[in-house]
Amino acid sequence: MKRLTVKEIEAKGWLKKQLEIQAKGLSGNLHKIWPDVRDSKWIGGEREGWERVPYWLDGFVPLAYLLKDEAMISVAKSYIDKILEGQQKDGWICPCTKEERGGYDVWALFLILKVLIVYYECSGDERIEEAVYRALFQYRDFLRNYTPAFWGGERWYECLVSLLWLYERRPEKWILEIARILKISGMDYSSAGALWKTIDKKWNVYTHVVNVAMSLKSGPLYRRVMNKKDQAVSDTDAERMFRLLEKYHGTATGHFNGDECLSGTSPIHGTELCGVAEAMYSYEWLMSLTGKSVWGDRLERLAFNVLPAAISPDMWTHQYDQQANQIECSRQNEPPVFNTNSSEAHIFGLEPNFGCCTANFNQAWPKFALSTFMLEGEDIVVSASLAPSEVHLTVKGAPVRVALDTEYPFRETLVYTVEADVEFSLKIRIPGWTNGFTVNGREEVAENGWFIVRKAWQGKEEVRVEFRFETELARRPRELYALRRGALVYSLAIDERWERREYTSNGVERKFPYCDYYIYPKSKWNYAFAGGEFEVQEKEFDVPFSTENPLEDTTTLPLRSITQTSITDLSLKSSTNSLARRLNASSELSFEILKYDETTFVALESSVTRTVS
User: Fold this and answer.
1) DSSP structural state of residue 531
2) 491 Cβ neighbours under 8 A, 6+ residues apart
């Protein structure tokens, strides 16, 4: 299925609102406040000249064009102009001297090429194709002297995006030669299964959660490049990799833990926001490359649950790590629960733990918006990711407009308005969690996760799809359960107290609205399910993913408070480290200690109930 661009796709409804919030937040202002973007070497400054500007532009550019925001478009152009001005005569485009090239990590090259392609697809800038051609041709010469190393060797498959784009325009053999060399010399994550079955509490590149998320698309994307034909490719390796991650590191929300490397299924471990954004990008590619509906299901789980959970409702601050069970976001005692990330990796701020996510989370919503519609063959319009949007295409020489009006995933109805006078197919993705559906009032059955309406359209017509969702308790490891309904995973609403923290560190200022925050619970959180019957109550909304005006349905839950004796409440009379040592010395179980205010709770990595005095 062919991926479309801002020239064909428009965001509507709650999705457009989410993009507008993002533009008013950190994404739309990072170039004003963050030195690594504002004063980057990419534009002639002295700050970081590697991944941060490309990461940011990868989201900022499509965001600007999706919103048709002329001020943002002008900023994007100014950055692209500077980057193109910096390209050397031999094609080298990254901001370093000729003498520094051998030690420069070309991961940034792969990123900036993706940015240039996104910019071309948005703007049609005629300079881009030649710049990409020259940069890749120079990289071919670079590979004769230097094999891909560091992050470039671990993320070689990201270069396939630009190689495929260029080969479709200029089918020259040397482009495929680069792809072969990268595959031979880069890391093969599809062979990392044995490593992914364990938890290594020391940092390593083989189980690094962002590398893992990116790598899921590597096999199918490589096959697409080498096949030279625009037809579906196998995803056997990607599916096997995903199932390993789901089994050994999966969470209730459909993602996998990694703080910063793969960290098991415990809901108190975290997952990095960069990994969420990159997994979404991988799933978008996998749905396009394979035509399989299940990758759209996995994409929506992340977009509607994991992504918004790690970003403040105003999108000015974010977490580095989020936890599935997260009752407080404040500095943890040392050592933190995270395997290799810091004790503040889960607070909300400008750049908690490390600044990569500050720049990289920007791509997630814009690219999701661009995955709402795709094109299969010449006359199959595909409604891929289900969110309010519309697409404008030319099919068999005739103009076609398809608009999807919906409040999905918060409601169950899709309304398509088709304006056309030509025969074509409308192919609609039917999520795997749907317990039946109707089309224009008639009960229908999906085929491999899709339903196709094939007809000669006349004027303006409507297709109405109604889903049926079941509310379910999904069983998790350690006798835990998660509440799901459709694409959404529900959480208990906890009253919050946000504590603002303004300061300057390493020359970078944190002040409102891009300061740091500790978040404390103001209401009880220690509840358990007392039964499996649920009543769904719908509320009106204006703003998606906001705790002030929640968009999602609220569900009346049968809840029962857990008594103090059953959760084991310990007063803090000594340091948590010594307490943990005493507990572990007297028991065959491994205890992890988490401190919240003046109370320390004991988290057991076991379903065994144990009384500790």
Assistant:
1) -
2) none
